[in-house]
TrEMBL record:
InterPro entries: 4Fe4S_Fe-S-bd (IPR017896), 4Fe4S_Fe_S_CS (IPR017900), 7Fe_ferredoxin (IPR000813). It holds the Pfam family Fer4. Coiled coil: none annotated. This is Ferredoxin. Its cofactor is [4Fe-4S] cluster.
Amino acid sequence: MCRLAPAKMRSSLAVIECFHEDDRMVYIDPDECIDCGACVPECPTEAIFYEDDVPDQWKGFIERNATKSQECPSAHE
């Protein structure tokens, strides 16, 4: 969901281990996410939602996050 530089998220959320990244986006691993909501106000593009609140046009990113978070390295490291 985040199309800005992943470092913008990492700088404020370094302790959250559910984030994974590639050179384009930051992905949230739904199995590692504890649904605390700490990342929601920190997202510079306002692109993070609780799963039940994801707007219809972004629903495809739910599966993409699940898949890509398994393929990409942790942003925590």
